[in-house]
């Protein structure tokens, strides 16, 4: 257990690109934290909107870094970590928001479990106007490697987790070569070396954008996820991961009205791993749901 008066500095990193309308909500959600020891670093990844002008109102409280060329989220996060002063790192995407008790609840977990490399939490989706919708995503208090390696699911992903700086640096930060799923890749590397825990309650809202990720992007997702899968050393676990990935791609295909493609991906999922993946990854049951919902 950490010392009684455990109150480390948390470096909050907000990467942003052309989100001048949403960025203030993200920043204000940090400023309203009940945990007092934090610094904020906003890295503007070459925005062409009014981001720079908006940031002027926080010039006395926030470190603002403006990049002239868009280099991608992974590159700017890695840059910010290099200049961060805290021993703990928290990343918040500029379209998401935290609840006021978020940092406090997570730092408390580190106090009681100092061996942890990261602490996550629950999340909900919200629309562009900030209204929450859908079901709360509540994780288990202990994130198990084998379960995570299959589903690659941490609610809110990078916008929700807080990690030890030494852990971030030990696994090499975010992979700038990946165009998508960089957060999944990072957590997979981290969980193989450190325990990860979570606060089983909603700590943040993740923004859902209509049409944000078109069907055409599936090719990029698959390419990145296959590369991530190749880094899973256990053969059976790697097959389970790929089988669940193909099934997820199938669901996206069905939702986009591409039934033929979806059927092809379902077949590939079962060919990759024909057995039950786990009690939480029941593909046949989910297919029946799609049929009942007339998606198929």
TrEMBL record:
It holds the Pfam family Glycos_transf_2. Keywords: Transferase. Gene3D superfamilies: Spore Coat Polysaccharide Biosynthesis Protein SpsA, Chain A (3.90.550.10). GO terms for molecular function: transferase activity. Residues 11-170 form the Glycosyltransferase 2-like domain. InterPro entries: Glyco_trans_2-like, Glycosyltransf_2, Nucleotide-diphossugar_trans. This is Glycosyltransferase involved in cell wall biosynthesis.
């Amino acid at each position: 257990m950490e010392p009684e008066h455990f109150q480390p500095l948390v470096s909050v990193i907000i990467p942003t690109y052309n989100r001048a309308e949403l960025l203030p909500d993200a920043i204000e959600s940090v400023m309203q934290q009940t945990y007092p020891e934090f610094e904020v670093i906003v890295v503007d990844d070459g925005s062409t909107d009014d981001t720079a002008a908006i940031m002027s109102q926080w010039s006395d409280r926030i470190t603002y870094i403006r990049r002239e060329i868009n280099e991608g989220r992974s590159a700017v996060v890695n840059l910010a970590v290099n200049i961060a002063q805290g021993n703990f790192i928290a990343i918040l995407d500029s379209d998401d928001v935290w609840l006021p008790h978020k940092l406090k609840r997570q730092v408390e977990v580190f106090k009681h479990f100092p061996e942890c490399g990261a602490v996550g939490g629950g999340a909900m989706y919200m629309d562009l106007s900030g209204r929450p919708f859908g079901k709360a995503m509540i994780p288990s208090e202990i994130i198990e490697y084998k379960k995570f390696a299959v589903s690659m699911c941490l609610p809110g992903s990078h916008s929700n987790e807080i990690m030890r700086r030494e852990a971030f640096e030990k696994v090499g930060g975010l992979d700038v070569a990946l165009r998508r799923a960089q957060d999944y890749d990072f957590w997979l590397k981290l969980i193989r070396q450190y325990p990860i825990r979570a606060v089983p309650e909603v700590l943040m809202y993740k923004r859902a954008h209509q049409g944000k990720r078109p069907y055409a992007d599936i090719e990029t997702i698959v390419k990145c996820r296959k590369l991530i899968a190749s880094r899973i050393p256990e053969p059976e676990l790697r097959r389970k991961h790929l089988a669940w990935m193909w099934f997820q791609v199938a669901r996206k295909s069905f939702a986009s009205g591409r039934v033929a493609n979806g059927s092809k991906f379902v077949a590939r999922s079962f060919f990759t791993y024909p057995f039950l993946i786990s009690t939480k990854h029941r593909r046949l049951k989910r297919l029946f749901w799609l049929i009942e919902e007339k998606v198929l």
